[in-house]
């Protein structure tokens, strides 16, 4: 009996030590968690990407006037729904959506998570559904490759991770409203990083090239004429250079970049079409007809 | 009646027959390992998606699933994962799923209707009890303690309340604008679009193996 009691006591003591060690481990994990939560933008979950994207879209939609045009929107949304099936990322947290912006400057923008915006001037510049699909595919590629999220400064992600770690450490007493405010401030800074990139500095040349490459492949797989991508890139460069628009929007972050590398961009697209034997065809009469029906409205 | 794996060695002592017990333990271990390999959990990482009969966007829908639903991963074939959900099997594009615990823990918080602060009050052990085989699934400290946190509805609410140059009404309107029951095949046919998913697969494999979140919580 004594032996049994002794054994029980030893077991209990061992359990307590193990539990203590476990708690210490947990504490260590809590501390580590905060600092390692956001090592890079790739650590953001699809849901977090969605809320960042909503905020970026909200900033852009505050700056531009929007168009209603239900039939044109339905047409563009159909092309987007069709094209995303050929993208490397057909599904995002909230799905892909499109909005027409009222603007004399031809441009297209995208926000993380699936928000695509195209200006009326850009729609007027497109001569076919294939060119429209090319623009939309390019924006889908920016989203699927997370170029918007990549614009967030690491310092802001690290700060967000630190605040979250702090909030978790203090969970016993409940987190404070002040902490939510701090996290929201970091959220706002991250949104501004993305907005600045879209409207001011633009994506890097390599990101634009990546987006063009995926767009060209998507067009080819989807059955569109891949050359439409080169056509619309070349056309928009000229349109915006000649534009007498009084609008002050800088288009560096949009589809219609006007930097001197346009010739190289066109050459890259054409080279890819040849090396990957991408689809080149004439527009099908049925496709021409449905495009004309929409564009004549 | 004495268990066959236990043998008496005198004076009422009962000691296990080591060989027999060991054999049973090994058999149990093998069985557990097999279960883990054949059905590891994955979670729906998007608001809504569908499980299809075959690994193709054109295949019939087996069942609709929603954010944070837990599915069993049975097989992986390129960008498509074979899963089972409520006795139904089918395929989902991997961009809609996550192997991370992060979304699953978020589920408990969301479904309880609590805010981020309610969620934060939960002990880490609470999360662990919902995902008993955390280590087997490759979860880490981030998953356990910080699940479902970060930039979310609460943060958006606070961001909105601070004013600033944002137009969320236009974003909500944009999100609602969809083409109900979009018919992929009809759209292609009516536009004379001869698509090819086979070509897609080959090109993606050739380039860099298709889409993937390279690191962190969404592997």
Radius of gyration of chain A: 25 Å
Helix percent band of chain B:
25-40%
What quaternary form is this?
A: heterodimer
Q: Give the distance, in angstroms, between the N- and C-terminal Cα atoms of chain A.
A: 95 Å
| Helix vs. strand class of chain A | mainly alpha
Mean pLDDT metric of chain A: 83
SS strand fraction of chain B = 15-25%
Count of runs of 4 or more consecutive helical residues of chain B: 9
Order of helices and strands of chain B: EEHEEEEEEEHHHHHHHH
The greatest interface here is: A-B, 83 and 77 residues
Assess the beta-strand content of chain A as a share of residues.
Answer: 5-15%
- The beta-strand count of chain B equals 9
Biggest sheet of chain B: strands, sense, closure? 5 strands, antiparallel
Low-pLDDT ranges of chain A: 15-24, 26-32, 244-251
Counting helices, strands and paired strands, the structural category of chain B is alpha+beta
Number of strands of chain A: 4
**Unreliable segments of 5+ consecutive residues of chain B:** 1-16, 30-37, 103-147, 208-219
Structural features, described:
The complex is a heterodimer of chains A (297) and B (219). Chain A contains eleven helices and four strands. With 297 residues, chain A is mostly helical. Chain A has a four-stranded mixed β-sheet with strand order 1-2-4-3, with helices on both faces. In chain A, helix 5 (129-144) packs across helix 9 (227-242) and helix 9 (227-242) runs antiparallel to helix 10. The model of chain A is unreliable at 15-24, 26-32 and 244-251 (pLDDT under 50). By secondary structure, chain B is of the alpha+beta class. Chain B has helices at residues 18-38, 102-111, 116-121, 124-130, 141-146, 153-161, 168-176, 184-190, 197-207, and strands spanning 6-8, 14-16, 40-44, 48-52, 61-66, 70-77, 80-85, 88-93, 97-98. Chain B has a five-stranded antiparallel β-sheet. A two-stranded antiparallel ribbon of chain B has the order 1-2. In chain B, strands 4-5 form a two-stranded antiparallel sheet. In chain B, a hairpin with an 8-residue loop joins strand 4 and strand 5 (61-66). The relative contact order of chain B is 0.10. Mean pLDDT of chain B is 67; it is low at 1-16, 30-37, 103-147 and 208-219. Classes of the chains: A mainly alpha (297), B alpha+beta (219). Chains A and B meet through helix 1, helix 2, helix 3, strand 2 and helix 6 of A and helix 2, helix 3, helix 5, helix 6 and helix 7 of B.
